Amino acid sequence: MGVHQAVNIAIFGLSLRTLNELKEQIQTAVPNHVQVNWSNIAEPQLDILMINHIFFDSPNIKSLIKNSNINVLQIANDVDKNSSIENDTLYLPLNHIHSLHHWLSHHLNERSQPTPEATEAPATPPVGETFHRRQIREVLQEIQNPRNGKIQLFDNNGLLAIADPRSEWLWQNPEFTSSQTDPSLNYTYATQNDQHWIAEAPQQDLKQWLWNLLWTSMDFEGLCPQFASSFYLDIWPQPKNRIDRQDILRMSACFAQGAKIDTVAAQLNLSEQKVRHFVAACLGANFGKLIKDREAKYSPQIQQNETEQHFMKKLFGRLRNRLGF
Q1: Bridge partners of 117?
Q2: pLDDT digits (tens, 9 = 90+) for 111-151
Q3: pTM, to two decimals
Q4: Angle between helices 127-143 and 59-66 (to 10 degrees)
Q5: Which one, out of 96, 110, 149, 212, has a CA that is 20 to 30 A from the CA of 298?
Q6: DSSP summary character for residue 285
Q7: How far lies 40's CA from each of 11, 103, 113, in Å?
Q8: Which sequence spans correspond to the domains of the chain?
């Protein structure tokens, strides 16, 4: 990498506290002439992935590692082996950085040996970018696949929840206090040891929880393709947050008849981006499907008389009561 080296490192599947502590220790362990760029798993030029060992066998993680030239260091907890690295596994707690410094130096030296091919422009899209774009739809489908037993849902910041796709129930990790995620969202199978805390966690509807997660997150617009113009809603979302609740109900009422996206945006005086974000969340949670324009039945009247307005007001009132708003 030359005199001024840079390394792209992603840390995946750790709690926020452990993540921040490990970052500080890595900065100390990395040689002084190396600049650390903290990245996520979708980074096309990722050099090193440090990942919680329980997520290492996730199918999509395996796929990324198999098709990428990434050095992987698994992270595990073992007080007796603290600070040591065995078979590319770092054991916490990290009381000293000798082993980590050696491991990083060794792998940085490997990467500093350039090859002629390394200076050429890539002929295909970066593996990380392709993984990021293609896999999220498959991940969301598998999260809801009834053939799966209990699974763990996680992202770059750690464990989000444990879900049971067969019964469509979910238990949110008490340490997951955010309502948002990003396209690093993934899953792996849950063992009995992974489930020790769910007896004390509230049981939630898996699909509704997933819809709310996608709605409050800003990186899933790609779930609604640009060519999509009409959508039919099968299942009404139950928004947890009062913000946008009225807009969500209004959009639901329109799309429950099958509607064009631009028509709904114009009729409700909403941006098309917001309406597409709604459709994206619904598609991700399997709440509906894209339809052909000729199948869209929603045809708003330019003006509504007082009787129609009164009817709509009563309808929304009943819906709020039914859905517990």
Answers
A1: none
A2: 554 434 433 433 333 444 434 445 788 889 989 999 888 88
A3: 0.63
A4: 170
A5: 212
A6: T
A7: 7, 21, 24
A8: 5-119, 133-216, 221-323
